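Q: Predict the bound structure with acetyl coenzyme *A.
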Amino acid sequence: PTSVGILACELYIPSLYVEQSSLETYDNVSKGKYTIGLGQQRIAICSDHEDICSLCLTVLSRLLDQTGVHPQQIGRLDVGTETLVDKAKSIKTVLMQLFAENGNTAVEGVDNVNACYGGTAAIFNAIHWIESSYWDGRYAIVVMGDIAVYAKGNARPTGGAGACALLIGPNAPIVFEPGCRSTYMKHVYDFYKPNLSSPYPVVDGQLSVQCYTSALDACYTQYCTKAQMNNESHSNQSSVNEVNLSTFAGIVFHTPYVKLTQKSLSRLYLNDIIRGCSYIPSPLVEKYKGKIDLDSSMNDKELERDLIEKSREVYEQKTLPGLYFSQNMGNMYTPSVYYSLFSFLSSQTNDEQLYGRRILLFSYGSGLASSMYSMICRKVHDSRFTLAQIQKSVKQARHILDNERTELEPDLMDKLLLEREEKDHKAPFTPTQPSEVLKSDNMYLQSVDKNYRRFYEKF
Ligand code: ACO
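A: Predicted complex:
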């Protein structure tokens, strides 16, 4: 198979949200801490009718409906999540209901778990299956989602929720670039969930940001080397274009909060300065080259401010257009970087200019696991799966985001999170929150019986 990539997508928009500005007042922090300091506008909240399985069931069934792909045409389904409802039974098996009722029980794949990285691990599995001797010609689907909630305190405003489903196969309009992938993994306690009965992580926020930044540096260095070698092996010319930030039409990151992506883009810019890349203005190279290195510059706030300023144009062009969902929904954990990819693609008005261009993705999951890789936009022939179709489904999600959510006051959010904390792993359970906020054609949790079995229905 050639040109393996994303054929179609569906994005979930949770029913409730809280304004970050209201949260600032409620939490009694200085005005601007969440909206300017973290760069967040709204935080997505799920009602008690929405759990991780209902989110995943909804995006999966919509993906099948919208694309017209029959469940029997799916040979692999991988799930990425860190929102666990069962220690042994995967969410993938819950999703099998949609296949088994259509006569298909031959679907490989189970759940992938490692903080926000599980979605990327799931995608890699799907690609590898299609490129392997075990591929039977059918499509793969990747579903990833999380309900990201933190205990009361400074991490709470960086919560959120989301889920997406991707149809993966050959002849795709967005292709995973062969050979261009870097990885950095380590044992760190920056964010983990040792309390199995609590939805909240134990988190060392500052350490997690440092780990994220180290992973970003390591992945970018390795990515550039590999991509450069890839370029050279595919070119007959003696000199090929150097790989740097100007190589990409878009640059998207796992997004715990928007401000971190601006810092991350400026950090990649610093990498390019240190590498002496040709597009960097020479006064800037003279100012910094040989005088700074990646390790010692990690906590240098003055340098960070200068680099944010110098890289602002690149950020506004290549990263900011991808941040609409993150800014208005918060951290979605596993699907975060993919909402950014789709937001970026749907923001582009001239598809012709995108064809043949690369988009760089950085995926980070605490603990830690991270990868950087690139995708190439392609004009497809003889296929109903096009970039325009992907942009259309992203715009539909954006319409729901802008028009169909219900605002909650922060005290109600706290009440709701307390209820989730208390009832998360209790049985039996029946959701009690008002159902007015639920949307038709979404799947919802109907009940959990005394044996902890969960039942869902379409609203
Ligand atoms: N106006 C403007 N900016 C402000 C204001 C204000 N009134 N008040 C504070 N700020 C700025 C701060 O200067 C700081 O800016 P800086 O990052 O450039 O230094 C920023 O807002 C955040 O303020 P801090 O005091 O650093 O925030 P705090 O330490 O309370 O919390 C943190 C931030 C650590 C990110 C916390 O929200 C957290 O733990 N989140 C969860 C962990 C996380 O998201 N990690 C990221 C990678 S791992 C993952 O995805 C889970």
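A: The longest helix spans residues 205-233.
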